[in-house]
Amino acid sequence: MISKQQLVLKRGFDLVLSVMALLVLVIPMLILLIMASFDTKQLGLFTQVRVGQHGQRFTIYKIRTFRSSGSSSDPDQVSRLGRFLRTHGWDELPQLVNILLGQMSFVGPRPDVSGFADQLEGEDRIILKVKPGLTGPASIAYAHEEVLLAQQADPEAYNREVIWPHKVEINKNYVQSYRFYLDLTFIYRSLSRLI
After folding, report:
1. pTM of the model
2. Beta strand segments in the chain, E
3. Strand, coil or helix: what is 45?
4. Which residue in 6, 30, 46, 137 has the fewest CB atoms around it within 10 Å?
5. Tens digits of residue pLDDT in 52-91
């Protein structure tokens, strides 16, 4: 199981890497935010309340990828630029700020909206011991989740009954058998999506 010392090391790594990444990516991120504003005809920065470490709520930052009349979960309302950003994971870049603020980590369970992580019970609540991540083992395993859900007759039921329980198991295993070097492998595998 992840220890206090490992959590401290993880936070130190997140702090250093987020500062370095923001120094390099702040200008490209601002350009993408401006482009998203024109593309969606709304503010290019999308915010939403998510469940974080120990069940605490925080505001997540993303680049807006859907039109004003649409929803982020409706694939028909995703803008042309938004589709490109999602494919490469660039819509997640503003979460570097969440990492810098200590609300997220580079690696961990993805932060969910209310009704999922905050409803965990028993041994499953171990997932809340770590900060949610920009990437992680479950997000890599379900890198094409939107495609999978689009193939289902009832995507919401499939997500709750099949995908979510599997993600819980993957994330429990991550926390229970945590090793710092695994974070580096998850980051490397996720970076390949950005290119």
Report:
1. 0.91
2. 45-51, 57-63, 105-107, 133-135
3. strand
4. 30
5. 999 999 999 999 999 865 555 566 688 989 999 988 889 9
